Amino acid sequence: MTELTDLSIAEARDKLAARECSAQELTMASLKAMDEARSLNIFITETPERALAMAESADASLKAGTHSPMTGIPVAVKDLFCTKGVRTTAGSRILDPFIPTYESTVTANLWQAGAVMLGKVNMDEFAMGSSNETSYYGSVINPWRAGDVQTVPGGSSGGSVAAVAARISPCATGTDTGGSIRQPAAFTGTVGLKPTYGRCSRFGMVAFASSLDQAGPIARSVRDCAIMLGAMAGYDQKDSTCVNTPVPDYEAALSGDIRGLKIGIPREYRVDGMSSEIDAMWQKAMDWLKDAGAEIVEISLPHTHFALPTYYIVAPAEASSNLARYDGVRYGFRAALEAGDGLTELYEKTRAEGFGDEVKRRILMGTYVLSAGYYDAYYLKAQKLRTLIADDFAHAWQKVDAILTPTAPSAAFAFGSKPDPLAMYMNDVFTVPASLAGLPGISIPAALSADGLPLGLQLLGRAFDEATVLKIADVMEKAAAFTARPADWWRKGA
Amino acid sequence: MSVDKATVERIAKLARIRIEDHRLAPLAGELNQILGWVEQLSAVDTDQVKPMTSVVDHALYWRDDVIADGSKRDEILANAPAAEFGFFAVPKVIE
After folding, report:
1. Which end of chain A is more exposed for a tag (fewer CB within 10 A), N or C?
2. Where are the domains of chain B?
3. Is residue A492 a part of any domain in this protein?
4. Given an 8 Å threshold on Cβ–Cβ distance, is B56 in contact with A197?
5. Of residues A166, A49, A180, A84, the one with CA closest to residue A123
6. How far is A313 from chain B (nearest CA, A)?
7. Could you tell me if A396 and A261 are in contact, meaning their C-beta atoms sit under 8 angstroms apart?
8. In 3D, which of A216, A219, A221 has the Cα closest to residue A202?
9. Where does this protein have coiled-coil stretches (chain B) (predicted)?
10. The predicted structure's pLDDT at residue A322
11. Is the pLDDT of residue A2 over 80?
12. In this predicted model, what pLDDT tens digit does every residue of A182-210 receive, in sequence order?
């Protein structure tokens, strides 16, 4: 018999509707899995009582027939979403303690749809990282190991993907600024979708780089991402950049018919140092698409090479501005002061002790590029490059309907193996360009590396055309038939 | 353009982050490494390019100018490290 924690959202939805299991049973199975996986350090805050109460009301609405596809589905929430009455940390000491008095729009939409919150999951501090090693609450451990070597889950949504890969929950919320949903999804054999900028409200999401941040679903199948995105997305007056455009039925878009669609292969994504197994997976995916009746078209995105350095000006600049709010006065952590210390010492000591090294590095970098005399040379230059990068994609959409690339240049790596910040930044080389252009992108697992670790493929689409991205990804997912799962070595007594 | 210890000290002051003296030189090195790498952007001719101001192609929405929220003093103060008499409390700033 299939364990309840193995069920996809779609399967659980059907079983709940058929009264073959209850939301409370599903939730209890997830809570047990959460308890057994504590050694993976996934959850910062567990909310079992709230989960059971939400499951009880989900069962009531299932009984009353007022349910929706997400009713009774357990969700792990990235600790970047403000949750009313539940501690929210953003993986940082500077928000210790912070208990929001309001709810983020994305989580409010999920609870409105009847989903069940299991708790708040770990992440890189303020979503700044690609390995989950910058969290004040310690690193998340990837359920996937290379032999006996533990690996990072990717970042910044490391707790979210690990919760899904370890089968604690069928899905999790993530956020993506430069690849923080897609890269960790690739590292853990999960499916992660970054929607178009403006598709989901950013209200109540702790801000990192406001022109890039976007919430999205992480699950174990394309169909589940489609279902979950439908519940997360939608116009919200509280976010002026959230776009008022209809949210289609994403699940209905999964027709399986991609005949005649044109899929672009950008030649600039063949970077030096990419492993041959990733290249082989990419080639194979082109064959799957051709077999399904799509046409493969070679394209050029000439400014790809400049996307990462552009990102590492724009994102730190916005971060230095956004993180100015952490002053030790209004919420969160305040450093202990000495006699005679004034307001300046309060700010400087609080921020010195409250932020970790990577966050400080980015705030300083951002402060520098925005400072008098340097603004034009760095920030304005980067915003011009961003226009060129977005134009590259705009030209591509005249020829193709979607773009296929690998998600990351490698599989998950060992802890501490990238001590150099630049080496760490290179992880996002394939995900950052679409972020700068605001475009939707999905990562699906498509192969295993020689070490037995999952590898991901990324599919990018036109702005607000998540439906086409999901439709093509669904076809690729069936062709890839990726059924591998991590051995549950972390389970007590297993 | 390269960053020295004095520059790190100056931007740390602007950013209101106290940096210990022994950390200034290593931080200058790290920032120079990143700045050296982003320097490659200067090779691109952008004289005729407009800087991006909005990544999605839509105008901001108008809304009615009405009070929709407020009267939440206690909620706002609920997370303050120190609050007294309905205000945020900070160290004495006037002698």
Report:
1. N
2. 5-43
3. no
4. yes
5. A180
6. 8
7. no
8. A216
9. none
10. 98
11. no
12. 999 999 999 999 999 999 999 999 999 99
CA distance A384 to chain B (A): 4
Set A15, A30, A78, A435: catalytic member: A78
Verify whether residue A63 is a known catalytic residue: no
CATH number of the domain to which A200 belongs: 3.90.1300.10
Beta bridge partners of A77: A120
**ipTM of the modeled complex:** 0.96
A30, A104, A156, A169: the active-site residue: A156
Instruction: Write down how long chain B is.
Output: 95
Looking at residue A307, what is its pLDDT?
98
| CB A54 within 8 Å of CB A315 | no
Give residues 6 to 25 of B whose Cβ lies within 8 Å of A: 7-8, 11-12, 14-19
Distances (CA, A) of A356 to A127, A146, A372, B56: 12, 29, 26, 32
CA A413, distance to chain mean position in Å, is 18
Q: Which residue of chain A comes nearest to B49, CA vs CA?
A: A384
Q: What is the pLDDT of residue A308?
A: 97
Instruction: Say whether A156 is catalytic.
Output: yes
Which residues does chain B have within 8 Å of residue A349's beta carbon, measured at their own beta carbons? 18
Asked if B41's CB is within 8 angstroms of A381's CB, the reply is yes
Eight-state DSSP code of residue B85: T
The H or E element spanning position A280 is helix A276-291
CB contact under 8 A, B55 and A367: no
Residues 50-69 of chain B whose Cβ lies under 8 A from any Cβ of chain A: 50-58, 60-61, 63
Q: Is residue A376 part of a domain?
A: no
Would A289 be classed as within a structural domain? no
Q: What share of residues in chain B are helix, strand, coil (percent, to 5)?
A: 40, 5, 55
- Chain B CB contacts of A380 below 8 Å: 51
- Closest-approach residue (CA) in chain A for B53: A383
pLDDT in tens, A116-143: 999 999 999 999 999 999 999 999 999 9
Q: Is residue A279 part of a domain?
A: no
Separation of alpha carbons A59 and A72, rounded Å: 7
Alpha carbons A330 and B87: distance in angstroms, whole number? 10
What letter represents residue A337's amino acid? Answer: L
* Interface contact flag, B38 A312, Cβ < 8 Å: yes
Known catalytic residue at A449: no
pLDDT tens, residue by residue, A56-96: 999 999 999 999 999 999 999 999 999 999 999 999 999 99
* Domain enclosing residue A166, as ranges: 4-256+476-480
Three-state SS for A397? coil
Q: How many domains does chain A have?
A: 1
Q: Please give the helix or strand (H or E) that residue A295 lies within, else none.
A: strand A295-299
A493 pLDDT band, cuts 50/70/90, is low
DSSP alpha helix (H) spans, A371-411: 381-396
Residue A385 has its nearest CB partner, among B7, B41, B56, at B41
* CA–CA separation, A456 and A445 (whole Å): 4
CA distance readout (Å), B75 to A102, A205, B45: 9, 18, 51
Closest chain B residue to the Cα of A344, Cα to Cα: B16
pLDDT given at position A415: 97
